[in-house]
Amino acid sequence: MAKGDKKSKNPNVSYDTSLPAQHTYLGNDLEELSGRTLLDDDSCQSLPLLPLPGIVLIPGQTLPLQLFEPSAVSMVKRIIEKDRTLGIVNQHQSPSADVACIGTTAEIRSYIERADEDIRLSTIRLKAEGRQRFQVIETRRQIDGVLMGKVRILPEITLDDPGEGARLHCLDRFRTLPLSTPEHMKVKEQGSIADSTLFKSLVRGKYDKFDFANYTRWPRWVYQQYDTHLLVQRIKQELEKWNCSVPADKVAKTPVDFSYWVAANLPLDDYKRLFLLGLNSDIQRLRCELSMLERYTVLCCRISSCNKDIINRCDVFSMSLEGLQGTYVNPSGYVHEIVTSYKACGLLLQNRSSTEQSWFPGYAWTIASCSGCGSHMGWKFTATKRKLQPQQFWGLCRAALRPALCSGREDEQWKPSF
Questions:
Q1: CB crowding 59-81: b at 16 or more within 10 Å, else e
Q2: pTM, entire model
Q3: Do 316 and 339 contact (CB within 8 A), yes or no?
Q4: What is the per-residue pLDDT across 144-164, written as a single tens digit (0 to 9) for each?
């Protein structure tokens, strides 16, 4: 393996997990775009919308695209010259093809335009990144076929510390500070640190973040349910049951970014994914994600008449640096969100294996369908070299799966457990 390659921390994976995230099947000659666009919160914007079936883009998620339709190609060429921003909305699987009322702006990071000699038209390959959530107010179809939408940029609401009004600040000098706070570092650098009252409290270890609950009508466990630090730690523990380790760059970011990363990696159906995208607070989003991680243990076929168990959560693992799920586009331009698993049951293989435009370089893919209903589920990937680990794994479409509760039944009126 070349110097600088990144191996997985999973001992069962020797594969360079940075390769899938690079989307090399799009080509290595994509032109990088500099500069970033940030729209004002609560502002109304007019954006070109791109409806994608089975895709709910999350802020921070990478979205690869291959566009062939002349209207879509011309739209992308125009926005590249402007602010490089378009709106991605989920297209419902219905005859009317309505779009969801919640979407995410996508900023184009790199692209390449090619002339397809077979169809005598220009095509565009690009990589974009989800940026900001928005609410669709109204839509209209232009004469060139482009769907335009009037949208409102949704703000991210940060809740105040619930104990600020009840905490007795006169006792702060007796309270131990977390080791990472600036106040603790200032005390540590003092020359007479051994004589300071604060240092003595540090040694005694009296710090209790929720001691203000003693002066309120609610017990401390109520406030602990809304503490972002505790929520992040509990989610990390639950992710270990999914064989998923959180990347270091995601740990260092804010709870808002972490909540988006978890939402992008949970194998949920479109309904629950849109539910998470519509929440305006990182605390509520983290609480719902924790509830889902605790309750779901198996992924089933999404066809209600089939409902066949396909994947157990203990068999799911990260084949990409992006996490449990990765977003990829096939040569026909159809976008898939893929969940990788060591094992899968109830699947049938179709046709021969192929390495053409493999999303995982070094692996050949074979189409897999459900043995119960025959619907397309994903692909089986087999290593072309003996040294690669795992030698085989399954990459299944999130849109073809449905998470099942521990009780084995699904509630259409699902709500997070508080």
A1: bbbbbbbbbeeeebbebbeebbe
A2: 0.83
A3: yes
A4: 889 999 999 999 998 887 777
